[in-house]
């Protein structure tokens, strides 16, 4: 278990821990006394950025699986450990998170959402649920449902994961995101009022984004007071508009070099509020369709390089803010 204690230095309140960043496994050990494992679910939903409601084709980097590769088809059935694609030595009840991952998982009638979420919350296999969605798909009915379920299941958690990627309008237009930053900020405010924890996805290596622009995104997330973050590298996947642009030498960035990515992640962690849980530091691109950068397939090497640079430069999560 990661030991954490709170200290004061001048006017700054910070956390001392025996690791370089506040990792998701450490959070789980502190909160639940054990590791938790995500179970990726595909509830068969679509996305307003694909079906024409606000756009077509989705975000520029999104593949046909809607980030739901290797997800289990979910239609409200009760799952048992033997159903899981990856089970972890029979970890048992309460050791898994029902992760509604593919596409936009609040983009359906509320009765269907209630059925899907309730089936997972009723299942003793799951400690709670995590819902990947868009901030423009959190209307009043959805928020009322989330509050209803939070009150009905006090022993389980409900997290919402928002794919922001960047705070910058120019980047949002390039990636065909389909909503402005103000929508994201308002969604965070509503979720916080409801007591729902927020995990935000950002991507490094986006078109014409400087390192300082990325750090501006980090600082904004500190101000918004999110609960968790997933940092990911821009992947070039076959079948995406991004890869098509890359092949045709249009307005697509060159794949990020490993050394640059490692350095920028370290800077992000240094500026990130020390109380924000780091759920991911590098993406898991499907090797069957990943075209670049191929160095990202060696995840352990990347994580070790991040730790090494933090050690050499005496950087820990939040230390550059202080």
Q: If you had to describe this structure to a student in words, what would you say it looks like?
A:
The chain is an alpha/beta fold. The protein is built from nine helices and twelve strands. The chain has an eight-stranded parallel sheet with strand order 4-3-5-6-7-8-9-11. The model is unreliable at 1-16 (pLDDT under 50).
Which blocks of ≥5 consecutive residues have pLDDT under 50? 1-16
> Globular, elongated, flat, extended or rod-shaped: what is the shape?
globular
Share in helix:
25-40%
Describe the biggest sheet? 8 strands, parallel
Strand order of the largest sheet: 4-3-5-6-7-8-9-11
Total strands: the figure is 12
What's the number of helices?
9
Order of helices and strands: EEHEEEHEHEHHEHEEHHEEH
Summarize the structure.
The chain has nine helices and twelve strands. It is an alpha/beta fold and 322 residues long. The strands form three sheets. The protein has an eight-stranded parallel beta sheet with strand order 4-3-5-6-7-8-9-11. It has a two-stranded antiparallel sheet with strand order 1-2. It has a two-stranded antiparallel ribbon with strand order 10-12.
Keyphrases for this structure?
20% strand; alpha/beta; two-stranded antiparallel ribbon; single chain; 9 helices; 12 strands
Topology:
Blueprint: E1 4-9, E2 12-17, H1 24-32, E3 37-42, E4 72-73, E5 96-100, H2 110-121, E6 126-133, H3 140-152, E7 157-165, H4 169-175, H5 181-194, E8 197-204, H6 211-224, E9 228-233, E10 236-237, H7 241-247, H8 258-271, E11 277-280, E12 290-292, H9 299-312
Parallel strand pairs: 3-4, 3-5, 5-6, 6-7, 7-8, 8-9, 9-11
Antiparallel strand pairs: 1-2, 10-12
Helix pairs in contact: 2-3, 6-8, 8-9
